[in-house]
C-alpha cells in the first residue's frame, strides 16, 4: 500500500491533570517519540503483515530522523520521501492526562514542509494495492486520489481538519474516515448521522465517523453500522485514530465484511492506547488476531447522534 501525508516528531509530556488557564503543573514523564497521521498508520499496517511505501516531506534535521526511524526499521519503503534542506520537520507538543490517558496536541508545521503535487510520483499510485491519505496537502492528495480512482486503486482518507481543496479530495475517496468534531464542523451539523449521510452522498463506498471512546458509526449505501469501542485501560490515546486506520486497512486486505473491518480497526486503536505515544502500542498480526478471538467490544451507547 502507498501512504501520502504527515510524519512527525512528538514531544510527549505526561501530567497528573491538565492545568487550568494560567495554571502550572509538573510533568511526570517526558519523551521524544515518532508520530504523524500517515506515518503511524503505515507502521501499524506493516506490523500487521502488510507492505508499505511512504511519500511525505521532512526537513534535514534530527526531528526528521527521529520521525522516520521506526518506518525505516520496519521495512517501509522511504525512497520517495522528500527531504527539504534548511526547513524544520513537523513537530508536536502532546500533553497526556496521566489519569485518563486523554491527550491534547499542539502541532507545528512550517508551510515550507508541504508536499507539492509534482513531488508525488503518480506511477507509485498506479502500482499500489491501496492508497492512504490525510488532508494535510490536499492538492497533492487530490492528484493522487484522481489517478487511483482511474486505476481502480481503493482510496482511504483520514481527515481531521478542513482546508483548501478538501471538498474536491473527498469527492475522489472510496473510504472517508473522519473524526466526529471534523464531521460536525465540515457539514455544519451536530447530528452525526446527518453528517455521515452527506459524507457518502458524493459516491463513497463506505463512510465512517469515529466517536472516540464510544466507537465508530459507518454507512454503506442505506445501511448503517455501529461499532462500539473495546474497553481497555488507556495509558495514552495519542495515535488511536491513526491506529484505527491501520486496522481498517488490514480488514480490507483480509476481505472482511464491513462489520469486521470496523471491529478490527477498533481493536487496533484500543491496543495502541496501551502504549505511550502515537506508535507505542501498535500490535502485530498475531496479537491482533488473539485479541479479536478473546475480546468483545463494549455495548453500543447511542445518544441522539
How would you describe this structure in keywords?
10 helices, four-stranded mixed β-sheet, eight-stranded mixed β-sheet
Q: Report the count of strand segments.
A: 14
Helix-strand string: EEEHEEHEEEHEHEHEHHEEEHHH
* Helix content estimate: 25-40%
What Rg is obtained from the alpha carbons, in whole angstroms? Answer: 18 Å
- Main sheet makeup: 8 strands, mixed
Number of helices: 10
Structural class: alpha/beta
Q: Give the overall average pLDDT.
A: 93
Distance between the termini: 33 Å
What does this entry look like structurally?
- The chain is α/β, with parallel strands linked by helices.
- The chain has ten helices and 14 strands.
- A hairpin with a 2-residue loop joins strand 13 (215-220) and strand 14 (223-228).
- Helix 8 packs antiparallel against helix 9 (258-272).
- The longest helix has 15 residues, at 240-254.
- The relative contact order is 0.15.
Topology:
Layout: E1 2-4, E2 8-15, E3 29-35, H1 37-47, E4 53-55, E5 57-59, H2 62-74, E6 82-84, E7 91-97, E8 103-108, H3 122-127, E9 131-134, H4 138-151, E10 155-159, H5 166-170, E11 175-179, H6 180-187, H7 192-200, E12 207-210, E13 215-220, E14 223-228, H8 240-254, H9 258-272, H10 285-294
Parallel strand pairs: 1-4, 1-9, 2-7, 5-6, 9-10, 10-11, 11-12
Antiparallel strand pairs: 2-3, 7-8, 12-13, 13-14
Helix pairs in contact: 1-2, 1-8, 6-7, 8-9
